[in-house]
Write a structure and sequence with these properties.
Blueprint (H helix, E strand, L loop, with lengths): L15 H18 L4 H21 L8 H8 L12 E5 L5 H15 L4 E6 L20 H15 L3 E3 L6 H12 L14 H8 L8 H28 L3 E5 L4 H12 L3 E7 L5 E5 L10 H7 L6 H16 L21 E6 L18 H14 L3 E6 L16 H5 L10 E4 L7 H7 L2 E4 L4 H7 L4 E3 L12 E2 L3 H9 L8 H15 L4 E3 L4 H7 L23
Parallel strand pairs: 1-2, 1-4, 2-3, 4-5, 7-8, 7-10, 8-9, 10-11, 11-12
Antiparallel strand pairs: 5-6, 6-13
Length: 552
């Protein structure tokens, strides 16, 4: 987000939003530091509930978001929309504050280079989305989502279109009746395009067999049908040269992306980069897959020079301390207690509904099946210790707590673990990097920590589909029998210098990829950053990007 102080005085009432946000950040930091003290943590949470009620009851104006004023200040001297030039369509469909800021910043960069940028947002009209369920929730999410996105785009001075501009209410109702019509056999086939959105909505990797889930599934099917009607109309009317959207994996983005590619329109998606304050952009695959195959095939055999090694070491070091991570989970972290087992196997899970997990499966039907099989392997190898680390994001962020947590399924039907298996819940501030240092073997599903472990020379086995699978420096699990065989014969865990070097080359390319863009942190840097766009954002007539995408 572009940050700019607006020069408000202490007595200015408009300062309240920033004051409330400052208090919120301090309370977040307090909760972070009290994670290992359950009683104090509970008191803090209850205090926040009371504070939130007071603010909503007596200071409703203080909840106004300051981003609108910031956007107006930063974009005040922005040029008018060009009369001619390449057309760039941004799909900003949800009021995720950070991606909305990313979109407007990137659009400003392109506008300064002569592009005609236009935005497409929802504004209401879908029966359900990943943010909320209008027909089921007392506070309709559309009442805050659409106006926020529209306000940001108006503040930045960009033209916008909403869903209702391309489909009428009567058409939506007709589509809903058609989709909800009972099938001849009494069943409906679930469209795979909505599966990941469903899991995001319920925050679980295994959808519950409940009436609520059935209603949500039907509503997502209706939403997908509406988007399949809107996407051709949107692209046909605007005729963009490039489409820019977030990750490309949720159903709204996937439908527009697939329609754009079918028309031969370039489609660029983006996600948070490996380093804090950066974006990863991709044109060939959805950015959420973090696929750098082309770059790896081009440069994967080149040895790292001293400068590259130093750059990689800096990135890995900042990730270890948390300073270089897009998100910080713990204020303080503890190390692992030593034991007397012959081997230590560090097992790292993902959040079960993470987009990196809920896509295509290769060895197991789900991540939970992989964890259950890991526990069974631990029972067969009592001389080895298995430390199963839950992903911190399972419980860390308010409103995004996972409904399906590691302790719920790791213990299985018996409700217990073998003596040589230790479960580290998400709330426990165990240092994952200290665990890697102590481990003899690292097992992951699709977590990026597997790449980091391989980059420091650890043997890593990968059970899920991830961008670094099949690159030659990990042992890739093909199924249950294959997974068991790995622990019966540990020859694959012997140190291999070439494997280590290959992992470091890949980690360097991934963490410093040329499709990475560092976000500006001030108004002055907005213009400076606009001169350094990644190749994925280059459209005809926008000029060439420099080789380096950092500020000079």
């Amino acid at each position: 987000m572009v940050r700019k102080k607006c020069g408000m005085t202490r007595r200015n009432a408009n300062q309240r939003p920033s004051t409330v946000r400052w208090i919120r950040r301090r309370m977040d930091a307090l909760e972070l530091g009290l994670q290992r003290r359950p009683l104090l943590s509970t008191v803090t949470r209850r205090l926040r509930v009371a504070m939130r009620w007071v603010v909503r009851r007596f200071l409703p104006g203080a909840l106004k978001r300051p981003e609108l004023a910031q956007a107006r200040a930063v974009m005040a001297d922005a040029p008018q929309q060009p009369i001619s030039g390449p057309r760039v369509l941004f799909m900003t469909f949800r009021a995720f504050t950070t991606p909305v800021a990313w979109d407007t910043t990137i659009a400003q960069a392109l506008r300064l280079r002569g592009a005609r940028c236009e935005f497409f947002y929802c504004g209401g009209g879908l029966p359900i989305c990943e943010i909320g369920w209008p027909r089921e929730e007392a506070e309709r999410p559309c009442q805050s989502c659409g106006p926020y996105v529209a306000g940001m785009l108006e503040a930045a001075g960009f033209p916008r279109r909403s869903l209702s501009d391309f489909i009428s209410g009567d058409e939506r109702r007709a589509i809903e009746l058609e989709v909800r019509r009972p099938a001849h056999d009494g069943t409906h086939v679930v469209d795979p395009i909505i599966q990941q959105s469903l899991m995001q909505f319920f925050r679980t990797g295994t959808l519950p067999e409940t009436e609520e889930c059935g209603r949500a599934r039907d509503d997502f099917r209706v939403g997908a049908a509406i988007m399949k009607v809107v996407a051709p109309r949107l692209l046909g009317e605007i005729s963009p040269d490039v489409v820019v959207l977030l990750n490309g994996l949720l159903f709204e983005d996937r439908i527009v992306r697939e329609e754009a590619l079918a028309r031969g329109v370039r489609c660029v998606s983006y996600e948070a980069g490996a380093q804090a304050g950066t974006l990863f952009l991709s044109e060939t695959r959805p950015a959420g897959e973090y696929d750098i195959t082309e770059l790896w095939e081009e440069s994967g055999t080149e040895s790292l020079d001293e400068a590259s090694e130093h750059s990689l070491a800096t990135v890995l070091s900042t990730r270890r301390t948390g300073a270089g991570m897009p998100l910080r989970y713990y204020a303080r972290r503890r190390t692992l207690d030593k034991t007397e087992y012959s081997k230590l196997v560090a097992v790292f899970t993902n959040v079960s509904w993470d987009l990196a997990v809920t896509g295509e499966m290769v060895a197991f039907d789900s991540m939970t099946d992989w964890v259950s099989e890991t526990v069974r392997i631990a029972e067969c190898h009592p001389d080895m210790e298995f430390v199963i680390r839950a992903h911190p994001a399972e419980t860390r962020f308010r409103g995004l707590e996972s409904r399906e947590r590691l302790p719920d399924f790791a213990r299985g039907d018996t409700g217990s673990l073998p003596a040589n298996a230790r479960l580290v819940p998400a709330e426990e501030a165990l240092d994952s990097y200290a665990l890697i240092d102590s481990a003899d073997i690292v097992a992951v599903f699709s977590s990026t920590v597997g790449l980091e472990a391989a980059a420091v020379g650890k043997p890593v086995c990968v059970a899920g589909k991830t961008h670094y699978r099949g690159r030659g420096f990990t042992t890739d699990v093909m199924g249950t029998d294959d997974y068991r065989a790995l622990f019966d014969n540990l020859a694959w865990t012997d140190y291999d210098a070439e494997r280590h070097a290959s992992a470091r080359r890949y980690a360097y390319l991934f963490c410093t990829a040329r499709e990475r863009w560092r976000l500006p942190r001030s108004k002055r840097r907005v213009r400076r950053r606009c001169r350094h766009l990644p190749p994925a954002l280059q459209a005809g007539g926008l000029g060439r990007a420099s080789k380096c995408h950092e500020c000079p």
